[in-house]
Amino acid sequence: MATEFHNLQELRHSASLATKVFIQRDYRDSTICKFQTKFPAELDSRIERSLFEETLKTLNCYYAEAEKIGGQSYLEGCLACATAYIIFLCMETRYEKILKKISMYIQEQNEKIYAPRGLLLTDPIERGMRVIEISIFEDSGSTSSSSSGSSPSSSTAQ
Amino acid sequence: MITRKVTRKWEKLPGKNTFCCDGRVMMARQKGVFYLTLFLIVGTCSLFFIYPLPFVLVDLFSTIKKKKNVLFVFSIPVFAVLLFVFVVAMLLRTSFSDPGVLPRALPEEANFIEMEIEAANGNVMAGQRPPPRIKNVQINNQIVKLKYCYTCKIFRPPRASHCSICDNCVDRFDHHCPWVGNCVGKRNYRYFYLFTLSLSLLTIYIFAFNIVHVVLREYRNIFEHVVSLTPHCTVLEVLVCFFTLWSVVGLTGFHTYLISLNQTTNEDIKGSWSGKNRVQNPYSHKNFIKNCCEVLCGPTYPSVLDRRGVMLEDSTRPTPSDASAASTYKSTNPVSQTTKSSAPLIPNEHTPEEAKPSIGAGTQKSTSSPKEEKPPSPTSPNAVAPAVIKESAH
């Protein structure tokens, strides 16, 4: 994991940032955390639509699971209330556990799918759960055209 | 040896919050009224535990005939102590936690939104007023307007509002409460509600206890050797409890009503979901129990403000520990295009903060403080009573 992280940093150092795309929240199902699955035009030449949609659907599922109001959330709420919420000082909430899973999933997706294509996903929690930021990199050796490929950077991440 | 002081992210957060305990505690700037609340609660309860509680217990003990009554007598002070601890815990939890502050947009995101707005608005003729920055979204078959926040440079999520006292956008903004010294929003609303509920119970308990004690004393003609203290303690407690009862119980009732409808104080005051031509509340499940469960037993949302994250000294940008790092900002960092982001000064209801020198005059305040000054419940007395009148701030 550490070497892969190091490779992602190398990617950032060797490649230059061309642009960023922001995937906005989808509020059609009220205020639960859900991101739009519309495929941005800027990524058209960089990644397959199906891979992108798969990532987004999985993320949306994780968030839906975290925000699900059901038996487990009631139990957690009632137990915490009975202890005047002091239990939260020692226990991790369900939401926090799922956020950790999301963080690991994004890292894994970055390493396996996005970094080889010169892209980088930012965990939404770092942007206030408002957007998924996708950084589009260009190789430092290539021309400044944003439509050019990024093959040298793909090897560093693998 | 150079000792590098670690800079945590809370030190660089915009907004008018104060932070304590190295970022663990987050409050509004004005904390005076919060100290008053704490003093009134702790002071009155301490007085109660000194007098009349011990005297009544002693009196009850002496008249006990059955063993099971001993348990009942013991439960009286235990219940009072537990309730007091719960009230203070809820107050501190409400006051010290992040209400659900939305961090401001970083420059790239702000520019991206600007470009989207300009693309959506099309070409505006010179001299013509640009259209207001509003996004329409459909939530549960109702059209809800998302407003643009000029301070935070984001389109506010539904139910979010900008608090001008704290200068932050808060998710599911209810109101700014000076009595707890913090905003009440998505993350701390349930603690606030439990605080008012438990405080109501505690107040009723102390009030009833004092009344019962006075009545008992009259009936039994108990000679009080602490004659000089008795009337003062009781009178003081009864006075504080009397005024607190009217306000806090009323406030608890009002918030119970709001919870049952899944509304916020902000929405209620603005009349967002009332009236014939208005949109019906799209967030309500139309079921009292479901609404209560969602608000009180829903998931505990994490704070999206990474207050205790470490900032590297060589960069003004935060650097989180995982791979999706913000060090990308080092590579291309468009110097703040403030002219672009604040240029279309739209004289609509939300005039940008940058255009107005005094923040107090900003229309974003219209969503929070002036309206919060009015007591929301018709049964509550007006604000000037000497004791704990919490509704005045709401």
From TrEMBL, chain A:
Coiled coil feature spans: none
GO biological process, one term: protein targeting to membrane
Membrane topology listed for this record: Lipid-anchor
Keyword set, alphabetical order: Membrane
Domain (Golgin subfamily A member 7/ERF4) ranges: 21-133
GO cellular component, one term: Golgi membrane
Coarse class of the protein's main subcellular location: Golgi
Localization: Golgi apparatus membrane
Top-rank lineage group of the source organism: Eukaryota
Leader peptide range in chain numbering: none
Family: Belongs to the ERF4 family.
Name this protein carries in UniProt: Golgin A7 family, member Bb
Automatic annotation (TrEMBL), chain B:
Signal peptide coordinates: none
InterPro entries in UniProt: Palmitoyltrfase_DHHC (IPR001594), PFA4/ZDH16/20/ERF2-like (IPR039859)
Catalysed reactions, as listed in the record: L-cysteinyl-[protein] + hexadecanoyl-CoA = S-hexadecanoyl-L-cysteinyl-[protein] + CoA
GO cellular component assignments: endoplasmic reticulum membrane; Golgi membrane
UniProt KW keywords: Acyltransferase, Endoplasmic reticulum, Golgi apparatus, Lipoprotein, Membrane, Palmitate, Transferase, Transmembrane, Transmembrane helix
Domain of life per record: Eukaryota
Keyword Transferase included in the entry's annotation: yes
GO biological process, one term: protein targeting to membrane
A Pfam family assignment: DHHC
Enzyme class (EC, first level): transferase
Its EC number(s): 2.3.1.225
Domain comment, as recorded: The DHHC domain is required for palmitoyltransferase activity.
Protein name, entry field: Palmitoyltransferase
